[in-house]
Amino acid sequence: xxxxxxxxxxxxxxxxxxxxxxxxxxxxxxxxxxxxxxxxxxxxxxxxxxxxxxxxxxxxxxxxxxxxxxxxxxxxxxxxxxxxxxxxxxxxxxxxxxxxxxxxxxxxxxxxxxxxxxxxxxxxxxxxxxxxxxxxxxxxxxxxxxxxxxxxxxxxxxxxxxxxxxxxxxxxxxxxxxxxxxxxxxxxxxxxxxxxxxxxxxxxxxxxxxxxxxxxxxxxxxxxxxxxxxxxxxxxxxxxxxxxxxxxxxxxxxxxxxxxxxxxxxxxxxxxxxxxxxxxxxxxxxxxxxxxxxxxxxxxxxxxxxxxxxxxxxxxxxxxxxxxxxxxxxxxxxxxxxxxxxxxxxxxxxxxxxxxxxxxxxx
Length: 363
What we know:
Layout: E1 5-10, H1 14-24, E2 29-35, H2 41-49, E3 53-55, H3 58-62, E4 69-72, H4 79-88, E5 92-96, H5 103-116, E6 120-123, H6 130-140, E7 147-155, H7 162-165, H8 167-170, H9 174-190, E8 195-203, E9 216-223, E10 228-234, E11 242-249, E12 252-257, E13 263-268, E14 284-289, H10 292-295, H11 298-311, H12 319-338, E15 342-343, H13 354-357
Parallel strand pairs: 1-2, 1-4, 2-3, 4-5, 5-6, 7-10
Antiparallel strand pairs: 7-11, 8-9, 8-15, 9-10, 11-12, 13-14
């Protein structure tokens, strides 16, 4: 049996905590180090998860020769910088969504990893969520006939960290933050056929005082095989997380609610935090999910990526897949600006998706 893969975490906020928990459930992984520039964060994170080393500079972590794989959970505008450094250090990389801010960065990241001979793995957990894996099995088995329409929705009342609201660092609003999940979910469910076009209706309904990014989005994707994908993403829904999908086919239909079917119906006057997203006010009635990281697929996702490193396998979700997602996001913001369908492939040199819809200075 091969020895466990030595893993370093870059980042110490909520998503890195989910990654740490998930990797602790993977016997073939060993958490070796964590890095965070915020004073005291890395040390506290290391104590919490029993990680032997903590650094305030991620480059010191990358300099450790025994670390084979890094999991990057930092703000979007830092993704490219960290991935290029990790590739240069010869580390296999798991990068959180979205891949980066723009297509030029995406190409640099993919090329750097290819040149260095390291894996660039894209952390799209919906492709590993047990309920959605079963949904795909139903579709692949023919139980629903030929697919005609896929729907996915993810909603809460807004992100937990300041950088999500700052489009200079995030690149966009809810489409960039959560629309990326829907795009890769549709591609994975259908076996990744080409996408012909995207239409997007974006708006800032509630959070205009905090961001010029979109807080509500409806995306319609048309695939080359004729299937339509429809995504509804929102930062304005109260009462905690909502994540569900539908598959409509010529011989059937299936509905999968990721949270409510596994939840505890709860009333709380004080409210509480969701472990995974830390999103939304949960005062009053809500659905309390248990084993959140497992239900969302994080355990299976990290185990899969570790296995890919250990046995030199091709990841289920790659950097190239992440680039396709980013291209669709750019096309969606362009569609929202034009008010019409935008064909793919879509070429742009825009620095951030938001700049196609609301240039700097616009509200």
